[in-house]
C-alpha cells in the first residue's frame, strides 16, 4: 500500500507513518514543519517516498506537489487537524474558529476531492479520517472543534453512501483522550503546564494506539469497510448531564 498521511510530523500522524513502514508499506508525509518531516523521513528509510512541507490549507501547492503520485495512492489518511482554545464560543477569537474550520473541514474536503477521482479510476482505495468523540458528545468549550468533528463523521458516512459502487472504503476513527501528542499544547497556545494537567493521573490513549486502529482498518480484506471506530481509554467514560440549580 501507498498511504498519504497528513499532519505527519508528530503525534498520531508520525505514529501512523511508522506503523505502515513497519509492515513494509510506503508512505508520503504531509505537514508544515520541514525539519520534523526530514528527520522522520531519515528514520523511516526508502519506503518514505516523499515529504511535502506545506500548509494543508494551501490546496494549490498541495495538488502540485502530489500530482506525480496521484494515481498510486491507495490510502488517504486525513489526520491533520487542531483544536484552539477551550473558552465558550462567544469568547472565542475569530482567528481561532476560522483556522479550525479551514483546517479541519475545508482543507480535508479539498484534499479528499482531489484524491478521489484517481481512486475511482483505479476502482480501489481507502479514505481514513481522524475524527473525535467530540463529534459525538458535546462538552464545554468544544463548540467549533466538536462541530468540525461532527462534520467529518457525517461527511465520512455520506461519502460511503456516494461510493458504494466504486469499491472505495471510507472510515472515521473517533479517538477520545489521547496523550503523547501536541494536541493540548496547541489548544492552550503553547502552555506546557496547562497541557500536562489534561493527562495528569490518567492513562490516556497514545498515538501508537490510534495508529494500530488505522492500520487494522486499512489492512482488512478489501470487502470489509469499518464505517466508524470510537476509542476511549479505560480511565474515561461518559459523564452525567449537567444540571444548574438556581438558589431558592
Class by alpha and beta content: alpha/beta
Low-confidence stretches: none
Task: Tell me the distance between the termini.
Answer: 64 Å
Estimate percent helicity.
Answer: 40-55%
* Basic shape: globular
Q: Which strand order spans the largest sheet, edge to edge or round the barrel?
A: 3-2-1-4-5-6-7
CATH class: Alpha Beta
Task: Note down, in words, how this protein is organized.
It is a single chain. By secondary structure, the chain is α/β, with parallel strands linked by helices. The chain has a single domain, classed as Rossmann fold (3-Layer(aba) Sandwich). Helix content is 43%, strand content 16%. The chain is built from eight helices and seven strands; from the N terminus they run βαβαβαβαβαβαααβ. It has helices at 11-22, 34-44, 59-66, 94-122, 143-162, 183-187, 192-199, 207-219, and strands at residues 2-6, 26-31, 48-53, 75-78, 125-130, 168-175, 228-231. It has a seven-stranded parallel beta sheet with strand order 3-2-1-4-5-6-7, sandwiched between helices. β1 (2-6), α1 and β2 form a beta-alpha-beta unit. The chain is globular, with a radius of gyration of 18 Å. The termini are far apart. The mean pLDDT is 96.
List keywords for this structure.
248 residues; alpha/beta; 7-stranded parallel β-sheet; 8 helices; 16% strand
Give the structure's gist in a few sentences.
The protein contains eight helices and seven strands, in the order βαβαβαβαβαβαααβ. By secondary structure, it is of the alpha/beta class.
List the helices and strands and how they pair.
Blueprint: E1 2-6, H1 11-22, E2 26-31, H2 34-44, E3 48-53, H3 59-66, E4 75-78, H4 94-122, E5 125-130, H5 143-162, E6 168-175, H6 183-187, H7 192-199, H8 207-219, E7 228-231
Parallel strand pairs: 1-2, 1-4, 2-3, 4-5, 5-6, 6-7
Helix pairs in contact: 1-8, 4-5
Amino acid at each position: 500500500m501507498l498511504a498519504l498521511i497528513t499532519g505527519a510530523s508528530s503525534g498520531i500522524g508520525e505514529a501512523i507513518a511508522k506503523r505502515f513502514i513497519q509492515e513494509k508499506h510506503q508512505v508520503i508525509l504531509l505537514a508544515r514543519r520541514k525539519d520534523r518531516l526530514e528527520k522522520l523521513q531519515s528514520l523511516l528509510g526508502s519506503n518514505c517516498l516523499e515529504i511535502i512541507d506545506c500548509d494543508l490549507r494551501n490546496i494549490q501547492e498541495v495538488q502540485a506537489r502530489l500530482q506525480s503520485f496521484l494515481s498510486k495512492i491507495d490510502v488517504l489518511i486525513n489526520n491533520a487537524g487542531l483544536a484552539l482554545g477551550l473558552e465558550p464560543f462567544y469568547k472565542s477569537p475569530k482567528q481561532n474558529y476560522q483556522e479550525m474550520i479551514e483546517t479541519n473541514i475545508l482543507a480535508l474536503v479539498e484534499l479528499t476531492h482531489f484524491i478521489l477521482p484517481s481512486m475511482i479510476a483505479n476502482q480501489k482505495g481507502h479514505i481514513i479520517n481522524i475524527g473525535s468523540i467530540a463529534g459525538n458528545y458535546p462538552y464545554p468549550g468544544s463548540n467549533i472543534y466538536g462541530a468540525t468533528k461532527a462534520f467529518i463523521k457525517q461527511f465520512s458516512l455520506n461519502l460511503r453512501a456516494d461510493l458504494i459502487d466504486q469499491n472505495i472504503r471510507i472510515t472515521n476513527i473517533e479517538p477520545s483522550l489521547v496523550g503523547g501528542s501536541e494536541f493540548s499544547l496547541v489548544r492552550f497556545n503553547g502552555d506546557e503546564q496547562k497541557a500536562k494537567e489534561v493527562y495528569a493521573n490518567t492513562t490516556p490513549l497514545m498515538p501508537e494506539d490510534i495508529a494500530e486502529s488505522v492500520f487494522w482498518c486499512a489492512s482488512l480484506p478489501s470487502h470489509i469497510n469499518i464505517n466508524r471506530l470510537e476509542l476511549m481509554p479505560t480511565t474515561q467514560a461518559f459523564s452525567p448531564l449537567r444540571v444548574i440549580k438556581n438558589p431558592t
